[in-house]
Specification:
Radius of gyration: 18 Å
Order of helices and strands: HEHHEEHHHHHH
Distance between the termini: 48 Å
Structural class: mainly alpha
Largest sheet: 3 strands, antiparallel
Strand order of the largest sheet: 1-3-2
Length: about 230
Amino acid sequence: MKKMPTAQDFKNSIRKKFLDAEIQKKSTVRITSGDLHRELGGYPGSNHRMPVCCEVMYNQMQFDDEIISAPPKGRGASLTIEYHIPRKDKPRVSDIPNISSPKPESQKISRFAEIAKLYPELSDLNNFESLLKLNPRNAIIDTRSITEKIIRKMCASLGYQPGTSKFAELISVIQNKGVLSRQTISYVQSIRILGNIAVHQEEGDEPFTHQDGLIAANLFQEFLDEVLEKKLI
């Protein structure tokens, strides 16, 4: 019986595609999960590893990459992601595309406090100002966590029960529903990726700064403004 591809197999294949695209001097490469899985074997088939394939594809995303199409539940053979070439070994906050200078801190923090009063489940926003001053990395991680809570709440209100679905899959669900603008979807993806980088920060990595935390807050505010304007939670 042929061995099914592992997460590392999918990762290695994706990275080879990145290298090939760079050698060919391409600026982007599009990868579709169904094609990727077929190349490595095991799909279609009853023991396929499509959920693993999709998770690896999502995990390989950097700030300027884009989900071109995704199946209704966020994972399946039609997931297509456009990755930008060349890749960065360690993406930085400055790599986030289309971000404006952070708004004055007082505007953001007071806005967060307002939201926390209206939505008790977002009470973590009350601590953002002090956390940002003490530990920007943890403030970024909290921003990602709160954003995921909102996305899960949105999915439920739209009739999709998130269950154990990954954050990246739920962003695809929201994208498919068309309730958020393309720009705001990119902000949410940036928050997800930035939060993941913060969670997996290693010794020797450049520390996160207060300015990095403000940028995360700025992205979050843009997302939250559209969610509240459209009454999505």
